[in-house]
Amino acid sequence: MSVLSDLEARSGTTCELCTGTQNLEIFEVEPVSISGVDSSILACETCRTQIEDPEQMDPNHWRCLNDSMWSQYDSVKVVAWRMLSRLKSEGWPKDLLDMMYLEPEVLEWAKATGEGIAEADKIIHRDVNGVVLQNGDSVVLIKDLKIKGSSQVAKQGTAVRRISLDRENAEYIEGKVGPTLTVIITKYVKKI
């Protein structure tokens, strides 16, 4: 079975956040360490648009999280936690967040994108030109880099796709160079 058909079976062919039935697609919950059903949700276009673009946010649409935050699936709970964290200045989401319980590893996954952290406390990753990097971005190496722990050298101009950010250090990102997952220093990359 495909991931889409598995998600449709799991959700009853409805959005796992708001139960909408129009324009349903797979939404991968960042950062994706393993792809597939466990790191994805089935989401409608309205939810996907508002998750990806905070400028499009309609707080009343997210009152649906009162139900979906209790999902048995971790990926749904992670997105619910992130959206409630993003909206907590509205008042009602803070009450829901106070009721919500996530296992420690699920909470770590939920916090991996920086939701729930005050803007002043967020670590901002920037490439060599000062462009802000986000989880899932693609970068290109601007210098030959030796891959630590191997004899491999990543050549200048090598593209590294779907990077993940180090939550504790603004100078480090992770990405796959060939088959090897490695840590790369942000001053040696340029966002594509």
**Helix-strand pattern, N to C?**
HEEHHHHHEEEEEEEE
- Radius of gyration from CA coordinates: 18 Å
Give the strand order, joined by hyphens, for the main sheet: 6-3-10
Low-pLDDT segments, ≥5 res:
none
- Give the mean pLDDT: 88
User: What's the total number of strands?
Assistant: 10
- Report the total helices: 6
Range of helix content: 25-40%
> What is the rounded distance between the termini?
34 Å
Largest sheet, in brief, is: 3 strands, antiparallel
Structural class: alpha+beta
Principal-axis shape: globular
Beta-strand percent range: 15-25%
Q: Could you describe the 3D structure shown?
A:
A hairpin with a 6-residue loop joins β4 (145-146) and β5. The radius of gyration is 18 Å and the shape is globular. Helix content is 27%, strand content 18%. It has helices at 3-11, 45-52, 65-68, 74-87, 92-99, 104-111, and strands at residues 25-28, 40-43, 139-141, 145-146, 153-154, 159-160, 164-165, 172-177, 180-185, 189-191. The strands form four sheets. A three-stranded antiparallel β-sheet has the order 6-3-10, with no helix packed on it. With 192 residues, the protein is an alpha+beta fold. The protein starts with a helix and ends with a strand.
Short description:
This protein is α+β, with helices and mostly antiparallel strands. Helix content is 27%, strand content 18%.
Short key terms for the protein model shown above:
192 residues; alpha+beta; 6 helices; 10 strands; 27% helix; globular; hydrolase; YjdM_C
Compile the SSE list and pairings.
Blueprint: H1 3-11, E1 25-28, E2 40-43, H2 45-52, H3 65-68, H4 74-87, H5 92-99, H6 104-111, E3 139-141, E4 145-146, E5 153-154, E6 159-160, E7 164-165, E8 172-177, E9 180-185, E10 189-191
Antiparallel strand pairs: 1-2, 3-6, 3-10, 4-5, 7-8, 8-9
Helix pairs in contact: 4-5, 4-6
